[in-house]
Amino acid sequence: MARSATETHLNQNALGILTDIETVLLSTANGQETDSKLVDRFIIHFKDDINGTKLRRQLDMLPDLMKTDTEYHPMTGCFTMSRVGKHEG
What is the pTM of this model? Predict the structure, then answer.
């Protein structure tokens, strides 16, 4: 069955947004500057589903969340990784 031009356009638009989301998450997690235009596009596209203010705040915190603290243990010969800023409790 042939697809309509509208259905094809919608699928291409959705794929573009998903690709842009991946790009923003990966670059932000790696400490690179977040592309504000792409974030604005998400907020407009998903306006009924997400809070733009919270999204921006969470993106700002993402690089810190992704950092790890690596420690070598000579007795075992192993490295362990833990989150930076984890709470002792």
Answer: 0.61
| Paired strand residues for 3 | none
Q: How many CA atoms lie within 13 A of 58 on its CB side?
A: 9
CA distance 82 to 11: 40
Q: In this predicted model, what pLDDT tens digit does every residue of 1-29 receive, in sequence order?
A: 456 665 665 567 778 888 899 999 999 98
Give the other-Cβ count within 10 Å of 16's Cβ. Answer: 11
pLDDT, tens digit, 9 for 90 and up, residues 32-85: 998 999 999 889 989 999 999 999 999 998 888 777 665 666 777 676 666 555
Nearest to 67 by CA among 79, 45, 83, 54: 83
What gap in Å lies between CA 18 and CA 20, rounded to an integer? 5
Residue corresponding to tokens 């989301």: 21
- Residue 26's identity, in one-letter code, is L
